[in-house]
Amino acid sequence: MSTDTDLQLLLTSESLSADLKNIAQKIYHSERISFDEGVQLYKTADLGYLGILANFIRNKRHGNKTYFNRNFHIEPTNLCVYDCKFCSYSRLIKQKAEGWEYTMEEMLDIVKKYDDQPVTEVHIVGGVLPQYDVQFYSELFSSIRLHRPDLHIKALTPVEYHYIFKKAKIDYPTGMRLMKEAGLQSIPGGGAEIFHPEIREQIAKDKCTGEQWLQIHEEWHKLGMRSNATMLYGHIEKFEHRVDHLDKLRMLQDKTGGFQTFIPLKFRNKDNQMSNVPEVSVIEDLRNYAISRIYLDNFDHIKAYWAMISRSTAQLALNFGVDDIDGTLDDTTKIYSMAGSEEQHPAMSTKELVDLIKQAGRHPIERDTLYNVVTDFQNYEFPQPEKLSKTGYIPLQVITNAN
Questions:
Q1: Which residues contact 372 (CB under 8 A, 6 or more apart)?
Q2: How many Cα neighbours within 13 Å face the side chain of 246?
Q3: CB 321 within 8 A of CB 55
Q4: 0.85 surpassed by pTM
Q5: Which of 127, 184, 240, 338 lies at a 20 to 30 A Cα distance from 11?
C-alpha cells in the first residue's frame, strides 16, 4: 500500500479526532503545523498515526532512498571544563587519570590510517580544554586539508567554538570565518541538548546558551556553509520543551536555509549524574523521530544514529520519517559506547550497512557529507571477501571501477 493511500484512509477514519484529522490534512497539503499542534502530537497521537504522516513526508521527499556515509571520528579528548549532568563521556580535569588528550600528531596519524580507504568524512568532536584553542584547531584543519584535500572536515560543536572564541577574545563572525579559512567545511549538530533555559540550566548550565548555539550556526550559514542540528530528548524535559527546541530550529532554517540534517539524540542514563532518570522506550524513540519529521518541514533530512539506538531500531525508524542512518564509523568513536549505547563497539562495514538498509525494504545510497551521491548500492554486487580490506571496506579502486 502506498503512503499516499495510507494517509487518505487516515483522513476518512471515523475514529480519528477532529484535531488530529486537521493535522493530517495539513500534512497531505504540505502545510505547516503550529507549535500547539506539535505539542498535541506528542500528547495525543499514537504511533501508527505518526508513522503514516512521517512516512508520507519522508517518501515524498526521498522516495525509498536511505542515505549513509563512510566516515571516521577523531575525539581529541574526553576531559572537559564543563560538567553536563547527562554526559557519560567526559571527565573533569581533576579526573585526568581516566581520560586522554591527543596531540596534533596523534590526530593526524588517525587521519593517515585511512589513506587507502574511500572514506569521505572525518568527524571531529570531543571535550573542551584550554590547550585546544583557535590556533590549535586552525592548524589541525589546515594540516588535514593539506594531507588529504578530498576528505571533508566536519568538526566541533558551538560549545567548543563558543569557548575557544571567548578565550581568543574574538566574536562569532570572526571566529567562524577563521575556521572556514583553515579548512573547516561543515559543523555537526552536537551541544544543542534542549534550548529552553528552564531545562538547560538544570542539565548543562555552564556551557553556551541555546541562543548562543543558534547564533554560531547562523554565522556559519552566513558564510554559505552547512551544518546539522540535534536535540537531546527523553530526560527531564516536557513535550513543550521539545517543540520549543524544534520551533527555534525551524525559525532559523527559515532565515538561513543552512541546516541539512536533524538528529534526535536519545538520553542514556549510564554512568552519569542523571542515572536516576529512566530512559524512554523504543516506541517513544519512534514517536520522536516521526514528530521531528512532521514539524521540521524545512529540513531535508532526519537522521538516526544506528550506533546509539541499535541496528534494529534504526531499521524501524526508516518507517517513521528517518532517511539517513549515519556512517560506517569503524569503531573510532567512544562517545556512544561510554554513554550506554546499544552498540558497545560501533563498527559496520559498507556491506553490512547496505544489507541492513535493504532488509528494511529501502534503497541504500552512499552519500558524501553534503548529500551528493557517491555510490548507489541498490543493484551493486559486492566483491568477494578476499578483495575486501581488513576493515571490511571496499578498496578505493574497486569503488572507482564500479562508478
A1: none
A2: 32
A3: yes
A4: yes
A5: 240
